Amino acid sequence: MDSKKMKICLIGTVASSTLNFRKKLIDLLLQEGHEVYIFATDFSDKTLRTISDLGGIPVSYQINRGGLNPLADIKSTIQLKNLIKGIDPDIVFSFFSKPVIFGTLAAKLAKVPRIVGMLEGLGYAFTSEPSQKKESTKKKIVRKIQVLLYKISFRYLDRIIFLNSDDPVDLLEKHKIKVKDVKILGGIGVDLDKFKPSPPSLDPVRFLFIGRLLAEKGIFEFLQAAEIVKKTHPEVEFIVLGSIDKENPSCLSFKDLEYYKKEKIIIHPGHVEDVKKWIEESSVFVLPSYREGVPCSTQEAMACGRPIITTNVPGCKETIFQNKNGILIQPQSKLDLVDAMMLYINSTNQINIQGIKSRELAEKHFCTTTNSKKLIKFLGGE
């Protein structure tokens, strides 16, 4: 990035998420002497204090995160434009779908010299439905509206960043969305000093799922595979970290969750703050997702030295060197997942061997310091 000191606005949504996944970026920008403004919609006393302690400047704004309300979106864009104009930044960097759309439009209206966006995945509207479910009319409409908004806003971006090479093909090329420049980051990265290798659990073997309990995350395949494996290997444990989102139509129901808990098929602590502890107590990390950017949970598990079972889909496949640090399976296949799990149950020595390789790959591809430095170069135009 240019050596001159600049004002840089980072526009996200949830403050805790920005701190979890942008902290190293913020640190590095501040070390270079830039003024960093962190925009979020839900600051708490804790997140405000954390950002201030880092040396960043918190800026609260409003955006209609869910649903489609044109009047609310226009109002939010104008308010955001006024906030940006008052700062007069050199760069505006937005991430996540709605901030990229409306943050970009607001930055253009505020006449910001350089505007950059990043999509860490294409989201629900572009993710396959479970095979037995027909795509809803609502989902088709949401996708069409999203594509239209991307077409309107992306023309004002100086650069758009994706995490994997499939997303720009499936979004930009397929829907004929024009942009000036595209870069592939390859993953946000993980703090390798925080997530360190540790001995895996081998007695019992424990399979760990971390994520929202949604169909597109593969939670149903995980539960069904666990039930099958438990019949012949009752000693094996299946841990599910994540909570139910009752507003999401593809979410696991309370009734189904209670069944799997009552039958002692899974252990479900719910949403937890310290995922590292659970990774350290696991054997194999499992994410049977239908599509991702490059999942942070998988990167964290790799850094802790855990083999990975995940699907051969955009974003997930970037974390696997087949049979080196894990196993790629077909999406939406509980039987593929059962077969992969049985390989580790019957050959526990592979848990150690492939776990070591996972750590090596995390060090090579998913160091948050290295990837944040790369991201800074992307922000600056390199």
Task: Describe this protein's structure.
- The protein has 13 helices and 13 strands.
- The chain has helices at 15-31, 45-54, 70-87, 97-109, 137-154, 166-173, 219-232, 254-262, 275-280, 296-303, 334-346, 349-365, 368-380; strands at residues 7-11, 35-40, 57-60, 91-95, 114-119, 159-162, 182-184, 206-210, 237-241, 267-270, 284-287, 308-311, 326-329.
- The strands form two sheets. It has a seven-stranded parallel sheet with strand order 3-2-1-4-5-6-7, with helices on both faces. Strands 10-9-8-11-12-13 form a six-stranded parallel sheet, sandwiched between helices.
- Helix 10 links the parallel strand 11 and strand 12.
- The chain starts with 6 loop residues before the first strand and ends with a helix.
- The mean pLDDT is 94.
Number of helical segments with 4 or more residues: 13
The overall pLDDT, averaged over residues, is 94
Strand order of the largest sheet: 3-2-1-4-5-6-7
Q: Low-confidence stretches at least 5 residues in length (pLDDT < 50)?
A: none
Give the SSE string.
EHEHEHEHEHEHEEHEHEHEHEEHHH
Helix content: 40-55%
Pairing-aware structural class of the strands and helices? alpha/beta
Radius of gyration: 21 Å
Main β-sheet, in a few words? Answer: 7 strands, parallel
The geometry reads as globular
Strand content: 15-25%
Terminal CA distance reads 7 Å
Count of extended strands: 13
